[in-house]
Amino acid sequence: MTFSWFGVFHILMIIALLIPNGIYMLQNKYVKNKCTSRCMNLLEQIGRYGCIILMILSVKGDWGTSDGLLAIYAAGSLVCLLLYALLWRKLLKGRSVYIGFVPIVVLAAFFMMLSPVVVILAVGLTAIIYVGMQASRRLYDKAWVSMALAILPVLLFLLCGVTLHAWLLTAAAVVLALSHPYVTWCNVSES
Fold first, then answer.
1. What is the distance in angstroms between the CA of the first residue and the CA of the last residue of the chain?
2. Is the pLDDT of residue 77 over 90?
3. In whole angstroms, what is the distance from residue 156 CA to residue 133 CA?
């Protein structure tokens, strides 16, 4: 395990993921976890903290990462983060979530120095997806938005793990993928 420039990018990604969650927790202090499965709750915590720690440490495999995979990593990461922030904006309905865009903008600026085309592609793709979601009436369903918010970080962690050949991160993301949507569904379906 080594700390590299990817660690800086990943710290920004983690901050972008945590800011809206923190705002939600402050606004909903008394909300309890309704998932009764101890196993799934434990797996979710293992996956969550495993992904956060492994993202920061930037665990890499032995096979180098090609320029094409780095472009997929950069564009995919920005798309996941932008959609995540936009969906939180929809769910929280407050301006305070805009602070979550700060690390995304910094990350986009770093990626812009590497490849402006990738950033333009990521922002354009995010806009197309978000406009399509806005056109769908299902976007107004709180359960649908909550499930999308549960899946996007998992996709981000899986994307980073696979494109950077960080197999421990990928494994932690798989654990999170198996548990986080389940726990989220238990919480939103009981409401």
1. 42
2. yes
3. 19
